[in-house]
Input
Amino acid sequence: MTSSNISLTQFLIEEQRAGRVNPQLRLLIEVVSRACKRISIAVGKGALGGVLGDAGEGGQANINVQGEAQKKLDVLSNEILLEANAWGGHLAGLASEEMDTSQPIPDKYPRGNYLLLFDPLDGSSNIDVNVSVGTIFSVLRCPEGVTSPTDADFLQPGTAQVAAGYCVYGPQTTLVLTVGHGTHAFTLDREAGSFVLTTRGMTIPQETREFAVNMSNQRFWEAPMQAYIGDLLKGSEGPRGKDFNMRWIASMVADVHRILTRGGLFSYPLDSKCAAKGGKLRLMYEANPMSFLVEQAGGAASTGRMRMLEVTPSGLHMRVPVFMGSKAEVDAAVGYHQAHD
Ligand code: AHG
Ligand code: MN
Ligand code: MN
Ligand code: MN
Output
């Protein structure tokens, strides 16, 4: 990574001068980045801050709309993002993995032109074991003439995103951002309290020898996925003619960050356990923002059967199968699906 003296604030002002962001979108990104700093501080305190473990009272875990037990940090991160974004005048509404429905901005505050969607804390299963977690966000335009958006106003394909990003809380806290002109990484200078541009224009190598998937689900996968991974595992003696390495952190943010940094293929495919829901990962909070970032870095993202960013959302919490990363490898995975369908 090449370091610079360019803060996120300076970067966004330069993007505004170049006509790539307007003042409202710039404020939105600044506000989200400030919320991520607060989440980073909470994550960093761990047991000392009393933030580990499940949310809920009397030994009874809170179950969110996804059917998952909420962690304390899921709830806290959601509250930090809601509170930070309520009053700035840049948003018309918000939607979150942790909330049943979308929320319009309260009447007491001015409303802006954008809709914000987020996965406040990604990789919840890793919080208590001190492994990287993250925040993912996606920005859409509020439809013309709508002042109090409902869920239906959020149901836009990923191609309609005007910005997307994630913040990974790992050994370093890194914010990765796109406004549709490349994918850029900013590392948090913890002493100064500001994000500093560390990679302008991340690029994913087209070819790879590395894949990320939860192999324990292998027997539940569809036939094309069985065939695809089966051939990867045959290595240099199989049809792919090369040996592959595997990594699985189980935090999408951390797995995709590795792929944006050095290439690879990330997949959470359809399996018979999640088939009724359409997949495991959520289109609006996980797949779409990550696909936008990956495409902007020269990679590809697909459901296995179509380009992710062209999926028409059927609901706020819609789930999809996911393949993303190095373009040649995503194309190979899609090829196995085409051959089987
Ligand atoms: P979240 O913590 O926001 O609910 O998302 C968890 C997701 C994703 O981060 C990760 O890739 C996947 O779940 C891990 O799934 P497994 O537990 O099946 O490995
Ligand atoms: Mn969750
Ligand atoms: Mn997630
Ligand atoms: Mn989450």
Observations:
- The pocket of AHG (ligand 1) is lined by residues 68, 97, 119, 122-125, 214, 250-252, 268 (CB under 6 Å).
